Amino acid sequence: MMHTRSQRTGRSGVGTATISLILLAALLAVVMIPRGSHAATAREIDVSVDVALERFAKEVPGAKEFLNGAKGVLVFPSVIKAGIVVGGEYGEGALRIGGRTADYYSTAAASFGLQLGAQSKTIILVFMQQEALDAFRRSEGWKVGVDGSVALVTVGVGGAIDTENIKDPIVGFVFGQKGLMYNLTLEGAKITRIHKEK
Fold this sequence. Notes:
alpha+beta; globular; 8 strands; 34% strand; 8-stranded mixed beta sheet; single chain; 32% helix; 4 helices
């Protein structure tokens, strides 16, 4: 019996150690994603944001009208996911208020699962309420699911945005290479204001 109890304890210890190593690797992956030398300029980000918003308006009927009612729109044109088993995601974008860039931001998150090569997605966060936008802009580092929740939107019948049922303060859209993506979560993504020279 003592031998069996010892074996169980050993298995538990190994499990805890494995989880700790995975979490440490995920943290390092996020921290070590290249930023400095490959970081985009303000001009490059603005151009990419324009392209992403044009794609949004083209692929989702009613998107342009929907954005017209927003208090602010945060666009990350290209969030790159890279790594095998444990990796990280990183991207840079801009917050648009009244159609103009107000600030630049980066997003970073750990990701799990088998990922061969780098994958890119576009994230658009729409602030529907002024209070939510103000709280976001006051924060030094805003984390999805902690500082605020983001409701990922699916389109209704006919592919149009169902504006009648959108009541959330912040809603999000995620695009992959094949279009609008579903069954995703942005929980845990950290968004931080960055300085860009014009």
